[in-house]
From TrEMBL, chain A:
<dbReference type="InterPro" id="IPR018078">
    <property type="entry name" value="DNA-binding_RecF_CS"/>
</dbReference>
<dbReference type="GO" id="GO:0005524">
    <property type="term" value="F:ATP binding"/>
</dbReference>
<dbReference type="GO" id="GO:0009432">
    <property type="term" value="P:SOS response"/>
</dbReference>
<keyword id="KW-0234">DNA repair</keyword>
<keyword id="KW-0963">Cytoplasm</keyword>
<keyword id="KW-0742">SOS response</keyword>
<feature type="binding site">
    <location>
        <begin position="32"/>
        <end position="39"/>
    </location>
    <ligand>
        <name>ATP</name>
    </ligand>
</feature>
<dbReference type="GO" id="GO:0000731">
    <property type="term" value="P:DNA synthesis involved in DNA repair"/>
</dbReference>
<dbReference type="InterPro" id="IPR027417">
    <property type="entry name" value="P-loop_NTPase"/>
</dbReference>
From TrEMBL, chain B:
<comment type="function">
    <text>May play a role in DNA repair. It seems to be involved in an RecBC-independent recombinational process of DNA repair. It may act with RecF and RecO.</text>
</comment>
<dbReference type="InterPro" id="IPR006171">
    <property type="entry name" value="TOPRIM_dom"/>
</dbReference>
<dbReference type="GO" id="GO:0006310">
    <property type="term" value="P:DNA recombination"/>
</dbReference>
<dbReference type="Pfam" id="PF21175">
    <property type="entry name" value="RecR_C"/>
</dbReference>
<feature type="zinc finger region" description="C4-type">
    <location>
        <begin position="58"/>
        <end position="73"/>
    </location>
</feature>
<comment type="similarity">
    <text>Belongs to the RecR family.</text>
</comment>
<dbReference type="Pfam" id="PF13662">
    <property type="entry name" value="Toprim_4"/>
</dbReference>
<protein>
    <recommendedName>
        <fullName>Recombination protein RecR</fullName>
    </recommendedName>
</protein>
<keyword id="KW-0234">DNA repair</keyword>
């Protein structure tokens, strides 16, 4: 089973006034000087999944300047043996809308068509920075296994925002809290179950594989004691009301979860490993994610690897390419030099990205 | 010339504010009215004036009528001990069209939303709790939307009515509907609420 973007059209998307890529499912190497617009291309692919994409940008930020007309990404994708057309766009001053096969759908519907996973330079510090980044990384993996996760997360988020508003406004209506907390507890349980299942699958997929990347033991943790099943969570929310009210927000729950990783072979926590090893660990997890999906006969994810090749030694780089090709993944990779992708040979499509007068050009090269 | 049209333009502008109408359809409607001044426009204006002068919300349940107490609340035969709670007057009228429910209603006028600053006070919930006591109510039927906010509101109300039977409408396959056309959520709700034949 394959999953790939087969055509990608950008219109007024950041530095690209127009760009059209015709793709055949092989990995995609994008090279060109800094600031040419390589990352913008893969950011467009990241918007074929729910959320704000790999830069976490608002719709307004993405519009090409100086026109600021709004933007559009159109893609033809092949997923689970069926072709789909995805269009996502935002008119000036509006939020982004999504159409799948010509029908307007909510953003979360994207998770059911294409799984997209990414690694970007800002994630280099993922293991040492705040839990939020790790949680988001985990949730993207969870969503690839369990598309319904996006809906549960949204449901939880929405109820929590309401509850936080009550806390901030000093509302003391216990019944109102109970109604919202019931919803949060129910969605929270679904979130935790999906997260634990995803972690188990990642760990299993790492254990079985022949890979040049280090395997990690993963665990779900919380800053404070947090029950995961609905009844316990509901009681905990109720008990926390006074403290939450003093803080003006919800202090415990799945929204505070953290992903802990320990490098299995060395017994070292990920945050204590070297910068290079930390990155290798992330690559390992993304590959394990792809492997787990492939093993279950589902559609593998599309990978977006921004500036990843340049930070690996040549042995690991070659190993990464081999594993991507062995899994039959469409990985979009960026780098400043075409030489970085030499090892891929005929196994990849290559595009040169250049920029003149603030406008990016993309051309396929051989 | 433009001065003569001022009143008509104002009418078009007002009509365009109605739900379901835009500037184009408002223009069409007004032109039609002007053409049928005698048979439609004048009676319409008269009816509007009358409704404008007499329409009000029922002090008891929030239904719209022409008296302080609506016809349903005024009808002793409808004191069955059942109150059906709905979000809007439109929902009440939909229930009434079906003609199946013989009790009384309570219109909330929306759903709880902390973010939109809609609290229990804005929703006539305290009034509902009073009514449950004063009207000897034995069952409260929550006929709220199957939306997230609707369900939060339902839980909120149910939580405050211990000792009274609180029920909600079933969710599932619509009458005359085919399974094929249902979304996953509806099918799973229908399966959970299955019953023995």
């Amino acid at each position: 089973m394959k999953a790939a973007v087969t055509s990608l059209d950008l219109s007024h998307f950041r530095s690209h006034k127009r760009a059209a890529l015709s793709l055949d499912g092989r990995p995609v190497a994008l090279y060109g000087p800094n600031g040419a617009g390589k990352t913008n291309l893969i950011e467009a692919v990241s918007l074929l999944s729910p959320g704000r994409g790999m830069r976490r940008a608002g719709a307004e930020e993405i519009a090409r300047r100086p026109e600021r007309l709004g933007w559009k990404v159109w893609a033809a994708v092949e997923a689970e043996g069926a072709p789909h057309e995805i269009e996502t766009r935002a008119e000036a001053g509006q939020t982004r809308s999504v159409r799948i096969d010509g029908k307007a759908v909510p953003q979360v519907a994207l998770a059911r068509v294409l799984r997209v996973l990414w690694l970007v330079p800002s994630m280099d510090r993922l293991w040492i920075e705040a839990a939020e980044g790790r949680r988001r990384f985990l949730d993207r993996a969870v969503m690839s296994f369990e598309p319904g996760h996006a809906e549960a997360a949204l449901d939880y988020e929405k109820a929590m925002r309401e509850r936080n508003r009550l806390l901030k406004d000093g509302v003391r209506d216990a019944h109102w809290y109970a109604a919202l907390e019931g919803r949060m507890a129910q969605a929270g349980e679904a979130i935790s179950i999906a997260r634990r299942a995803a972690i188990a699958r990642l760990v299993a997929a790492q254990g079985e594989a022949e890979t040049a990347f280090p395997a990690a033991d993963l665990a779900l943790g919380y800053p404070d004691e947090t029950p995961e099943e609905a009844e316990g969570l509901r009681a905990a929310f109720a008990a926390m009301r006074p403290r939450d009210m003093a803080a003006g927000r919800t202090l415990i729950g799945p929204h505070r979860a953290d992903l802990d990783a320990v490098w299995r072979a060395k017994g070292v926590a990920a945050r204590d490993a070297s910068t290079g090893e930390q990155k290798a660990l992330l690559i390992s997890l993304i590959l394990a994610n792809a492997r787990a999906l492939a093993a279950e006969g589902g559609a593998p994810p599309v990978l977006l690897l921004d500036e990843v090749a340049a930070h690996l030694d040549s042995r690991r780089r070659a190993a990464l390419y081999d594993e991507i090709c062995a899994l039959g993944l469409q990985a979009f990779m960026t780098g400043t030099e075409p030489g970085l992708f030499e090892d891929l040979g005929e196994r990849a499509q290559r595009f040169e990205v250049t920029e003149t007068g603030g406008e990016s050009q993309v051309g396929e090269t051989t | 010339m433009s001065e003569d049209r001022e009143a008509i333009d104002r009418l078009i502008e007002l009509m365009a504010r109605l739900p379901g109408l835009g500037p184009r359809s408002a223009r069409r409607a007004v032109l039609h009215l002007v053409k049928k001044r005698g048979t439609l426009l004048a009676p319409l204006a008269e009816a509007m004036t009358e409704v404008g002068a007499t329409a009000r919300e029922c002090l008891n349940c929030g239904n719209v009528g022409t008296g302080d107490i609506c016809a349903i609340c005024d009808d002793e035969r409808r004191a069955t001990g059942q109150i059906c709670v709905v979000e809007d007057v439109a929902d009440l009228w939909a229930m009434e069209r079906s003609g199946v429910f013989k009790g009384r209603y309570h219109v909330l006028g929306g759903t709880l939303s902390a973010l939109d600053a809609v609290g229990p006070e804005e929703l006539r919930i305290p009034r509902l709790l009073d009514r449950v006591k004063s009207e000897a109510v034995s069952e409260v039927i929550l006929a709220l939307g199957a939306t997230i906010d609707g369900q939060t509101t339902a839980h909120y109300i149910a939580d405050q009515l211990p000792g009274v039977s609180v029920t909600s409408l079933a969710q599932g396959v619509p009458v005359g509907g085919e399974l094929d056309y249902l979304d996953d959520g509806t099918i799973s709700a229908a399966l959970r609420a299955r019953r023995t034949l």
